[in-house]
Structures are given as structure tokens and as C-alpha cells.
Known about the structure:
With 305 residues, the protein is mostly beta strands. It has one helix spanning 8-11, and strands at residues 15-19, 39-51, 54-56, 59-61, 69-83, 86-99, 107-110, 112-124, 127-138, 157-167, 172-183, 185-187, 193-195, 198-200, 204-206, 210-220, 224-235, 254-264, 269-282, 288-299. It has a 12-stranded antiparallel beta barrel with strand order 2-5-6-8-9-10-11-16-17-18-19-20. Strands 3-4 form a two-stranded antiparallel ribbon. Strand 3 (54-56) and strand 4 (59-61) form a beta hairpin. The protein is globular, with a radius of gyration of 19 Å. The model is unreliable at 1-25 (pLDDT under 50).
Amino acid sequence: MFTTIQNKKHLLMFVLAMISFTGAYAQMPNDAVYMSKNTACLALSYTHSSWDKYWENTLKRENLNIGTQTTQVGMAMLAVGVTKNLNVIVSLPYIWTQASAGNMKWSKGFQDVGGWVKYRFYNKAGLSLNAVVGASIPSSNYVPDFMPLSIGLQCKTATGRLVARYRHKTGIYATAYGSYILRSKITIDRDSYLMGETLYNTNRVSVPNAFDYSARVGFTNKAIQTEVYAERNECVNGDYIRRNGMPFPTNNMKSTTVGWYGKFQPKNIGFNARVAYVTRGENVGQAMTYSAGLLYQFRYLKSGK
């Protein structure tokens, strides 16, 4: 008997998403915060996520053969200000998973390297509109067909996102975004697989495309930022975990997450933290997530160059 883990591209972007992103939130691919020209920010973060209940399709249940599922992520992210309205962001997470019961071993390794370009094409009277395009590719030969202990789906992705933000002169702001994620096919270590009620005699698997959207309300000034938010992540299609069955990359994963984020960065060095909880879903675990990060901002070119 098996259960499922929420794909990292969904967990913080989700996910984080993306789908993976957790921890460092300033200058992220899903916000409207920018590094100024010739400056950069290096973020190092740690995330701990765990659950002991999950949704098998829409049925919420436990699985004593898994016990508590735990995922830990260490991630490095670099945001670079090319201009005041154009940022480039790259990231690489290292993930390790484990279960408190059963005979399934842990899994660990570098997941997917990601890159994004964020462009602010409108900025007037406190309102900014931002376009984000990104892509990710697996950085190691990890096994995707080992759910719930796999560290990712081993697929290439391409993402398009629109971010809208309004900030009042008092520092109170509201942010909303929506994105669509294209996913490539993957290769698994078996000659056939069952999707729904259909048997496919191939080792090539179509991973469902996905979309996500979010609303955030908070306060920010030169030194601090705090916000509360809600996120929704959904696959466009896919099948469901069968009763007492094993999850699979073709599953239609859906989740609603609520959370809080805070940052303190009075000068070059800063800290941030995040708490998130999955309130409802399908084919995902009901995860509680804690993140903490260290931020270092620096100038990579002198003024005038």
C-alpha cells in the first residue's frame, strides 16, 4: 500500500512549486520585487515539509505503511538585476525524502535547475504588471517513478506567468499571479504502465501540464516584509490514485495552500521565514511546511558601468 507526495513544482509555486520554490521569497519568479540595476541577491534556504494524511483521489486517509512522509530541501537561488525592470533568476535545490514506517528507502539528490526572466512592463500609480518566463531541466539522473519518495518528476518544464501588484504609499500591498506550466514526457524503468483503465505498452510517460494562481496581501518597507497568502495548484488532466494503490507521475494532483511569509533585511544581509499548510487537495499529501532563509545582497558592477 502506498501514498503520494506533493510534487515539488507544486509545493511552493507551486509549488513551488514549483514547483518547486520554498524558503527564499524576495526576488522570486512569482512576485513583483526587483533587484536594482547592477545588483544581485544570493539566497540560501532550508525547507522542512511533512504529512501523515493524504487524499487518495478525494478520499482523505492515512497509510500506516508510510507513516509520516518528510521532505527536506536545501536550495541556492541567485537573482540578478539587469535593469530596474528586468531581472534574471536561477536556482538549484537539493532534496531528500524519507518515511517513518515501511520498507521503502529514502531518496536524495539534486533536483531540477531552473531559470527565469522577469520583466516589469507597466509601473504607474502604485500598480505594476510583470511578465515571467522560465524553464527547468533535471540536473541529475534521479528516479521519477518512486513515489512518494521520488524527489521530482524528471521532466523538462516551460512556464509563463503574469504577476499584478498594487502597493499603497503606506506600504500595504496586494499581489496576484497566474501561470501555466508545460511538461515534457519522461522515461521510466518499466516496459508498460497503467493510466486510468488503459494499459500503455511503452516506457514513455506523458506528465500532465499544470497551472497555478495565488492572491497575497501584506506590508513592506525598506527593512521588513510580511504577508499572508493563498495558492491553488492544479494539473490540467491526469488520472487518480486507485484504492490502496501507488501514486504515479500521471496523477491529477490538486492542492490549496494558505500561508504566511516574513522577511527582515535592514541592509545587505537579511533573513526570511515561511509557514504553509495544505488545506485541501486531490492525490497529494496534507503537508505542513516550514522554511527559513539567509539573503545576501551585493553590487556586481560599480556605479556608472
